[in-house]
Amino acid sequence: MYSFLESFRLAFNSIRAHAMRSVLTTLGILIGVAATIGVVAIGQGMSHAIGSQFEGLGAQNVTIRAETSRMDQLQGKINRLTLTDYELLKSRLSGVSNITPVLFVGNAFGQARYKNNETVTQVFGTTSAYQDVNNSYPQEGRFLTISDDRANRKICVIGSKLIEDLKLPTDPIGDYLEIGSEWFKIVGVMESRGEIFGFSQDNYIMIPVGAAAALNGWSQNQNVQISMTIDDLAKFEEVKAYARLLLRQSHGLKAGDADTFKIETAQQIGDTFEQIMNTLTVVMSGIVGISLLVGGIGIMNIMLVSVTERTREIGICKAVGAKRHHILLQFLIEAVVLSLFGGLLGVGFGYLIGFAIASAFPVFPDALVPWWAVTLALGFSIMVGVVFGIAPAAKAARLDPIEALRHE
């Protein structure tokens, strides 16, 4: 124990005696760890933001959307879900308390006009059940009603950003918007949801689904997305199986044919996005982490120089009784301390980089540095010190004391 502590003392004394060289030696480790922590901070911030968005929808929220396989795409086939599919599920599917279609007008984005002001916004048709499925409610006025659904009234509920973009009055209830050459009366303004990755979540107009179908020309190829709330999450697989059976029959699919749709819970969709972001974070961190190896090579190089410079000192130590393992331990500790010092500074700079990027660019959510990233970065720094310090330490330990004392 005493020899271990003495090795630490000698290693620290050596580092302090060559302070500038020690700082420059750790630069490679510092830069590598700082870049890795910065990448993880941004990636985990995005992953957390995505997860929070989907958590808001609730675990019982289920979405069904059309899915076209690569083979079908190559054959020019595009699968769709239709309003007929929605009506089928609404009338036959049990165990769900709310079910609604989402039908985008045109290519999802269109022009809306108020007096002389125009903007591009997302326009889609839905029903009165939409607010309960998505846990999103009006902050002013009212939402679409069952009566609006049945009558296909030309009314709309807008996201709060439209008030700013179209220079609408503070209370726009009762005013009219022009959408696709048709006039729609504003009956409600939805509560604000802010931005994610720099994109506003409040830039949209909702109209009755029948009115949206009319704006699309009542085409038979209109593709809808169907959302619903399952009453009992424990029965999700049962509800999913029956919904799948109904849709396969409706689409005339035979045994062995792939589904032309996909059924997912909000949690599953969120998990998929989080998995993608986590994978990207790991890949980016791995690429950036290669610079740690470069830093390790730098440490080994400096340590070899140090062994040569201190050959006579090593000889004196051995002459007064120091064993080979004492010399080995001293130089190994010196390499690990240098590497760990660079890792600690790198973690600090990584924090600053992540939070500075998140603050400078609104498109990025708040940076988040998990404890495991810090632990891994410091653990990897120590490992680099051990791996790249062992060769110089072994060289110092193998020196013959007589030859070392003769060294000039």
From TrEMBL:
Q: Where are the transmembrane segments?
A: 21-43, 282-307, 328-357, 369-391
Q: Show where the ABC3 transporter permease C-terminal domain sits.
A: 287-401
Q: Domain of life, per the record?
A: Bacteria
| UniProt keyword Cell membrane present | yes
Its keywords, alphabetically, are: Cell membrane, Membrane, Transmembrane, Transmembrane helix
Per the record, the major location class is: membrane
Protein's membrane topology = Multi-pass membrane protein
What does the UniProt entry say about where the protein is found?
Cell membrane
Residue ranges constituting the MacB-like periplasmic core domain according to the UniProt record: 22-242
Any one GO MF term held by the record is: transmembrane transporter activity
GO cellular component assignments: plasma membrane
Q: Which family does it belong to?
A: Belongs to the ABC-4 integral membrane protein family.
Q: What is this protein called?
A: Putative ABC transport system permease protein
Q: What is the lineage of its organism?
A: Bacteria, Pseudomonadati, Pseudomonadota, Gammaproteobacteria, Pseudomonadales
